[in-house]
Amino acid sequence: MAIRHALKTSRSEDFSAWYQEVISGADLAENADVRGCMVIKPYGYAIWERMQRILDDKFKELGHTNAYFPLFIPVDLFEREAGHVAGFAKEMAIVTHHRLEQRDGKLLPAGKLETPLAVRPTSELIIGESMAKWAKSYRDLPILLNQWCNVVRWEMRTRMFLRTAEFLWQEGHTAHETEIEAREEAIQMHEVYKWFICDVLKMFGIPGKKPEYDKFAGAVDTYTVEAMMQDGKALQAATSHYLGQNFAKAVGIEFQGRDGKLQYAHTTSWGLSTRIIGGLIMSHSDDDGLNLLSAIAPYHIVIIPMIKDENSNKIMEYCHKIKSMLPDSVRCFIDTKEYSPQNKKWDYVRKGVPFILEIGTKEIESGNICVTKRLTLEKQNMSLGEFVEGIESMLIQHDECLQKQNENFCKKRIFKVNTFAELKEIFKSDKIGFVKAKWSGTSKNLKLLDELAVSIRCIPTEQSGSVAKCVLTGDETTTDAIFAKSY
Amino acid sequence: MAIRHALKTSRSEDFSAWYQEVISGADLAENADVRGCMVIKPYGYAIWERMQRILDDKFKELGHTNAYFPLFIPVDLFEREAGHVAGFAKEMAIVTHHRLEQRDGKLLPAGKLETPLAVRPTSELIIGESMAKWAKSYRDLPILLNQWCNVVRWEMRTRMFLRTAEFLWQEGHTAHETEIEAREEAIQMHEVYKWFICDVLKMFGIPGKKPEYDKFAGAVDTYTVEAMMQDGKALQAATSHYLGQNFAKAVGIEFQGRDGKLQYAHTTSWGLSTRIIGGLIMSHSDDDGLNLLSAIAPYHIVIIPMIKDENSNKIMEYCHKIKSMLPDSVRCFIDTKEYSPQNKKWDYVRKGVPFILEIGTKEIESGNICVTKRLTLEKQNMSLGEFVEGIESMLIQHDECLQKQNENFCKKRIFKVNTFAELKEIFKSDKIGFVKAKWSGTSKNLKLLDELAVSIRCIPTEQSGSVAKCVLTGDETTTDAIFAKSY
Question: Are residues B155 and B201 in the same domain?
Fold first, then answer.
């Protein structure tokens, strides 16, 4: 007999439909009426806020400060950095008017702007312009900035969290006196992302460098963490760029060095967006919906009062008593909405709340409680004392289980191959994953990958050092690369 | 002999130039190259972040949750609410294209949109559209949302923080089952603003209702806090609106009531923006620059090491020792930048750091420190132990002094008048302020005020109840109103 699940669609049936169902089932977000945009609903936004707090604390610990730069970028500024314009100037929202006028009952754009403005797709140029004003001497460096904001890239095919016209992110921008310092910064922030993605969010990710042809537009080096999703595809989870002096030259970040001479700064930029929520979903969720790590779960425990009118006061009091007994670090919510307890319970299963308590007269009388564990959907009876005493270690176990589960899945989906034929076989199968193979680093024969809709995700930091033939060119090389289909 | 100050311009010489100088001297913000936009620099943004944290905690305590809604609003949505379109549809940034194309080396807009998109000037309509989907039954109400975001209103004359094309704010939006609940919410959030502005920021503000003709476009009632600036002008510091069913009808927020029948929700909205930083400046700053309350000061203490090469290690160690001795609640920064200690000291005076310590060999040897108090610029000698012991109460005193100082100023600038002649005399003088006078509530003779560039700021919550003649119409009335020039 088939097991019934809280979602209609399972991962194995239709991964993409399952993904949408996790999002709607957990009430994370919905498509907006505005083309390509999404509404991040309170439960989804609460997860983003927790992520923000963790990252923001870390950025500040490392000496960065937040600031805010304009949403609008005059389009001629894009003409300054040739590589950048090629990568970004294509699909952006362009503001051309500053007024609406009513004509025949319709509102029409009026007040044409002399220079059209792009809604920022990223802020290297506009922040660089400010840095150019601020960095007068080597004494003013490094400048270590971060900005939490919205950005817009006009995407043709959108998918919630993964690819939307507008999204939220943080973008770090730094300027340094020397290349060494800037390179260290880019790598340091790459390490921060690795820590956040793999240790905090317990996703399975491979850190490495992007191949030359797939770097950020205008960058010298792009570092990435490529996370494996439960369909075996890769998600580029966060990137950090060493930009060399490219942007410094484009916008004039010139300072007086220790030798008294004017020189260009070396800059970096690094970003992580709400896309990571999509990655989180596709890493840890299951056929019953979302699963959340305790670090980012809006609630660790939800208490559902089993209210019948005559004893509702007594039950509500008991629920509040339980909540008050819990350690301060444990986030507990008592849901008093007037919906059926059974429906609520399944809502919280789909929302990935680690532990769900249904509290009624029976629980008050016995002094025991029955905990539904989200991960296994098992119900466990224990005394209230035991629960309060054990909740913190139960949350640690919950996190460990999620990590193990994901790690076990992903490790089985890493394939080492020696030839293109082997690589092809894997991507033609229904168990795709990350393929580790030799690559000579040239763009020769990349179209063989295009045909499979596969790309080189990164040159992983961890290299075997062995010599073998490139699967694309047959040239001997020591370089290992990660090949995968991707989001 | 004239006293020298840290700023070139004094308040009495040129208030507007002084205001700009406080901002640049404290490194809060600067004009962006993009017309009408500003860059909020790290020190200014750190103040905003502290404000955000205080307000956000309060909003959440009262049951609100944050969410995020699209930046873009299809312009036809503005056609739905007649009052709203009249108030807002005029000066907005309009996106008409979604691509740039290179032609003759220039980037030009391409890919025309079928429906132009407005960059949100406020989000009643777009959030209302979501609420319409979410509120199916009375069980789903109230919906208590807040959003921290950027908004754009195309202003012709801009001034940093006070009026810029793009600014940052929070906008609360709630939907309720009944008029009573919604009215209570609007008043509750008005009270929160009053608390934040008058108790946390210790600004002098008068709470009240906006006159009919000056309400938020589409609102039934608008509540405001009108704060008095040091030039006697009023700043509308934050507003809260009861919107009735106007927006609910425009976007269809219809739910099944307890009687089983469909009905429209009652909604509210309330917002506070980065404008408040301008208000803060004009309330507490002086001719030496910014002054900050301890609740929002990025640093309470700055330590400036008086470094000469041979003993720099010893001095740095001692600075860190002082920092480590301070209570956790005290924010202390050690400035190690390679600039002259004297210049740094005056920078921190202009930045409004409550206490500045210059630490050199002398201080190490004596065990005493010399504290520069920002408020009086007096230097005070005390033992390190005394300082560490006393710092928390010194901060409380600092806050109290700031409040007193501002309150004394403002109270003297409140004038009670009985006739228009008296009112006119005050606004023709060089000591303008808030004028309290009777107003009959009609729009008759308002042009008399226009001629003086004066407006009715609010009907204050505190009413005397006495009967007298309206200064504009001569009609008898009990209503007191506040008249002022304003930002």
Answer: yes
- Check whether residue B124 and residue B245 sit in a common domain: yes
Interchain contact, A66 vs B46, CB within 8 Å: yes
* Average of per-residue pLDDT values in chain B: 95
Q: What is the CATH number of the domain that holds B364?
A: 3.40.50.800
- The pTM of this model reads 0.96
Report the amino acid identity of residue B52: Q
A487 min Cα distance to partner chain B (Å) = 23
Please report residues of A whose CB lies closer than 8 A to that of B169.
none
Domain-located, residue A35: yes
Smallest CA–CA distance, residue A108 to chain B, in Å, is 8
E strands within A290-378?
301-305, 332-334, 355-359, 368-373
Distance of CA A102 to the CA centre of its chain: 42
Do residues A350 and A7 make contact, with C-beta atoms less than 8 angstroms apart? yes
Q: Is the pLDDT of residue B109 over 80?
A: yes
Q: How confident is the model at residue B161 (pLDDT cuts 50, 70, 90)?
A: very high
Kindly state whether residues A216 and A359 are assigned to the same domain: no
Between CA B393 and CA B389 the distance in angstroms is 9
Summarised one tens digit per residue, pLDDT across range A304-329 is 999 877 678 899 999 999 999 999 99
Report the alpha-carbon distance of residue B43 to residue B48 in Å, rounded. Answer: 9
Percent of chain B that is helix, strand, coil (3-state, to 5): 35, 30, 35
Coil/strand/helix, residue B227? strand
Helix axes A275-284, A42-61, angle to 10 degrees: 110
Please name which of B33, B32, B8, B6 lies closest in space to residue B18, comparing C-alpha atoms.
B8
What does residue A368 show for φ and ψ, rounded to 5 degrees?
-105, 160
- Token pair, residue A184, equals 């260290």
CA distance B466 to A177: 69
Do B121 and B252 share a domain, yes or no? yes
Q: How many CB pairs under 8 A join A and B?
A: 200
Q: For B289, which DSSP code? A: B
Give yes or no: residues A462 and A377 share one domain: no
Q: Which of B371, B397, B423 is the last residue of a domain?
A: B397
User: Same domain for A312 and A220?
Assistant: no
Q: Of A401, A423, A445, which residue constitutes the final position of a domain?
A: A401
For residues B376 and B398, what is the distance between their CA atoms, to the nearest angstrom? 10
- Residue A449's domain comprises 414-484
**Same-domain check for residues B31 and B136:** yes
Compute the distance between CA of residue B137 and CA of residue A410 in angstroms, rounded to an integer.
43
- Which tokens is B484 given? 């002022």
Nearest to A42 among B66, B116, B149 (CB): B66
Q: Does some domain include residue B7?
A: no
Confidence at residue A1, expressed as pLDDT on a 0 to 100 scale: 47
User: For chain B, how many residues are written?
Assistant: 487
Q: What is the DSSP string of B166-220?
A: EEEEEEEEEEESSHHHHHHHHHHHHHHHHIIIIIIS---EEEEE--GGGS-TT-S
CB contact under 8 A, B46 and A65: yes
Query: Over 90: is that where the pLDDT of A80 sits?
Result: no
Residue A103 lies in a domain: no
> In CATH, what number is assigned to the domain containing residue A213?
3.30.930.10
Please state the φ and ψ torsions of residue A5, each to the nearest 5 degrees. -120, 165
Total domains, chain A: 3
Q: What's the CA gap between A359 and B422, in Å, rounded?
A: 68
Helix ranges (H only) for B326-383 are 341-350, 361-366
Which residue of chain B comes nearest to A66, CA vs CA?
A: B42
DSSP B370-429: EEEETTT--EEEEEHHHHHHHHHHHHHHHHHHHHHHHHHHHHHTEEE-SSHHHHHHHHHS
All residues of chain A having their beta carbon less than 8 Å from the beta carbon of residue B59 are none
Residues in A closer than 8 angstroms to B46, CB to CB, are 65-66
Asked if the structure places residue B223 within a domain, the reply is yes
